[in-house]
Write a structure and sequence with these properties.
Blueprint: E1 3-5, H1 16-21, H2 27-34, E2 38-46, E3 49-50, E4 53-63, E5 68-80, E6 84-89, E7 100-108, E8 115-116, E9 121-122, H3 125-128, E10 137-138, E11 145-146, E12 151-153, E13 162-164, E14 197-203, E15 212-217, E16 222-226, E17 229-234, E18 240-252, E19 270-273, E20 276-281, E21 288-300, E22 303-311, E23 321-328, E24 334-343, E25 349-357, E26 364-380
Parallel strand pairs: 12-13
Antiparallel strand pairs: 1-2, 2-3, 2-6, 4-5, 4-7, 7-8, 7-9, 10-11, 14-15, 15-16, 16-17, 17-18, 18-26, 19-26, 20-25, 21-24, 21-26, 22-23, 22-25
Length: about 375
């Protein structure tokens, strides 16, 4: 018996790729189109004449190197009429960009052993189009297609849903007939809590530190990040705001006030002999005092340094309110640090750095200077 396959008719459903881009068919239809089976049609001759009747057929998918891929498919009792037959085959998601061949063996239905056909039949490019669908998933209710993996263009291991790499990566949106032009929408549909950001455009380098960013917050503010820090914000009222930035204010020792303050010079600083002295403090309204550094030397006794405020609206003037303080006694030059988070309200209070003896013993202090670190949030007109 001489048997040969003369012709291979390619897959049905080659247009599946385009349909997958925007598909609102029923779930049943989607599942049918996404099935990896395909139709194989051939012409069979037996003894030089077109074959007729039933044949048992066996199909294997092999690579150019002869390796078998997937399972062997048996198709018993295939009806052949005038030498023409047609079968459905499904090897699963086996196809890739490499060459594949069908290895076919057959016999008359229910008789004898199988005869392998030669040569093997090449699988032409059309069936490989199924691989473009990838592992799409179907929503059982809406029948929407989703792709659960990252897509890389020029990237072997994409780290994001869409990851593109090129010598110069360019994404172009070209509107050809719409008055509103092209649109890029950044959306955050989180409903459990108000999202921190609705979206952002990041400007990055190899370090991935995001030195630049344009972001829109969940409470309706637009933030601008430059050189790794937020530099400007448009608040919900439409006003420009410069975010809080640390600043320093230095106070010379000549500003020390008190009944027992000796004459000062730049080398020795200001000397206090007695119970009390203070340094007036003036800062912008609504700024936040974060840290006070006092450079000094306690020549005698224990001294307590304090950041104080005094209410201007109360008469008679009450005693100063201590906001933070620290005691020190060291005969060498050193820095006393006061940490706080005090918001300046110049309409209600005056502020000062106060020095007072912490014991009944006499105190002698040399003050060389005061530095204050504070933050300012500046609304712009």
């Amino acid at each position: 018996m001489h048997v040969r396959v003369c012709r291979l008719v390619q897959f049905v459903g080659v247009c599946v790729i385009a349909m997958a881009l925007h598909w609102h068919a029923s779930a049943v239809q989607a599942q049918q189109l996404l099935n990896s089976s395909f139709t194989y049609q051939g012409r069979l001759t037996d003894g030089g004449l077109p074959a007729q009747g039933a044949y048992d057929m066996r199909f294997d998918l092999v690579t150019a190197g002869g390796a078998h891929v997937g399972q062997t498919l048996d198709r018993p009792g295939v009806q052949v009429q005038d030498g023409v037959f047609s079968v459905f085959l499904d090897f699963g998601p086996a196809f890739g960009p490499e060459a594949f061949y069908l290895e076919i063996a057959l016999r008359r239905a229910g008789t004898g052993s199988y005869t392998a056909l030669s040569p093997q039949q090449p699988v032409l490019p059309a069936p490989l189009a199924l691989t473009a669908l990838g592992p799409w998933e179907i929503d059982p209710i809406s029948a929407e297609l989703t792709y659960p993996y990252n897509i890389g263009l020029g990237v072997s291991n994409p780290a994001f849903p869409v990851d593109i790499a090129a010598a110069q990566a360019v994404v172009r949106l070209n509107t050809t007939d719409a008055v509103n032009g092209s649109v890029v929408e950044l959306r955050n549909t989180r409903t459990a809590t108000t999202p921190a950001f609705l979206g952002a455009i990041n400007f990055n380098d190899l370090t991935g530190a995001t030195p630049g960013q344009l972001a829109y917050t969940g409470d309706n503010q637009m933030a601008f990040r430059v050189n790794g820090q937020e530099r400007l914000r448009i608040n919900a009222a439409g006003s420009l705001v410069v975010p809080a930035q640390d600043r320093w204010k230095s106070i010379h020792h000549a500003e020390l006030r008190g009944a027992n303050v000796s004459p000062v010079d730049d080398r020795s600083g200001a000397t206090l002999n007695g119970a009390l002295a203070f340094v007036p403090l003036e800062l912008p309204d609504a700024s936040v005092i974060e840290e006070v550094r006092i450079t000094c030397r306690e020549l005698e006794g224990v001294v307590r340094y304090a950041l104080v405020r005094q209410n201007l609206s109360v008469l008679p003037v009450p005693g100063s309110e201590v906001m933070t303080s620290a005691a020190s006694s060291s005969a060498v030059d050193h820095v006393v640090t006061l940490n706080t988070n005090l918001v300046v309200d110049n309409d209600t209070y005056s502020y000062a750095i106060r020095m007072v003896r912490d014991t009944v013993a006499n105190t002698t202090v040399q003050l060389f200077g005061v530095r204050i670190r504070y933050a300012v949030t500046t609304p712009l007109p």
